[in-house]
Design a protein that fits this description.
alpha+beta, single chain, two-stranded antiparallel ribbon, 11 strands, globular, 10 helices, DUF3109 family protein, five-stranded mixed sheet
Length: 199
């Protein structure tokens, strides 16, 4: 069942901010250089299952990581608890995700995702990374699905507005990965309803 109000939409056990429908966004890596992997107070949020998968797959993707990053991972562990008590990826110099590397264009990329695209592992990357700039906060009775507006993503906003691509369409794949095909169909129906109301 889908429930609407002035600021959010409820689908199943998710409460979705209207920004997810109304904001335009397409990631522009050439301009942001992968800043989301280096900005923030802690590493990328992980589930317990994701932490286990990363530890399992580490021998297959570690070759893509700088030696210093490998040292940090092997010293701090494959995941860690941050100051808020959340399970996250380890950081290099308390800033950059340890699972990243710079490519030849100076763009920060994910070593896990690199191995995925090379067909070496089946896990793409943490779903929190895949969904960014959507952030999900899990509560006992519902998940809050919100758009996190950051200065580092201004190029993505400009690109999305130029192409007229809503955030929920740009992030179709990770949203389906998180909540499933049927949930996303409900999301599209809700988006159509909101568009009709605006017209």
């Amino acid at each position: 069942m889908t429930v609407f109000d002035s600021t959010m939409i409820e689908i199943g056990r998710t409460i979705i901010s209207r920004d997810v429908f109304e904001k335009k966004f397409v990631c522009d890596l050439l301009k942001c250089k992968g800043a989301c992997c280096v900005e923030g107070d802690s590493g990328a949020p992980l589930t317990q299952e994701e932490a286990k998968i990363i530890e399992r797959d580490y021998p297959k993707f570690k070759k893509y990581l700088p030696e210093k990053h490998q040292e940090v991972i092997e010293d701090q562990g494959f995941s860690m608890i941050d100051d808020d008590g959340d399970l996250v990826t380890p950081l290099v110099n308390k800033k950059q995700c340890a699972y990243t590397f710079y490519d030849e264009k100076g763009i920060l990329k994910c070593g896990i995702e690199k191995a995925f695209f090379e067909g070496e592992i089946t896990f793409r990357k943490p779903v929190s990374c895949h969904l960014f700039p959507i952030r999900i906060t899990e509560y006992k009775r519902f998940d809050a699905v919100n758009y996190e507006e950051l200065d580092i993503c201004k190029p993505g906003v400009a690109c999305g507005e130029a192409l007229q691509v809503p955030l929920y369409k740009f992030l179709k794949e990770p949203l389906i990965r998180k909540y499933g095909e049927n949930w996303y169909k409900e999301l599209k129906i809700a988006a159509g309803y909101l568009e009709e109301k605006q017209d």
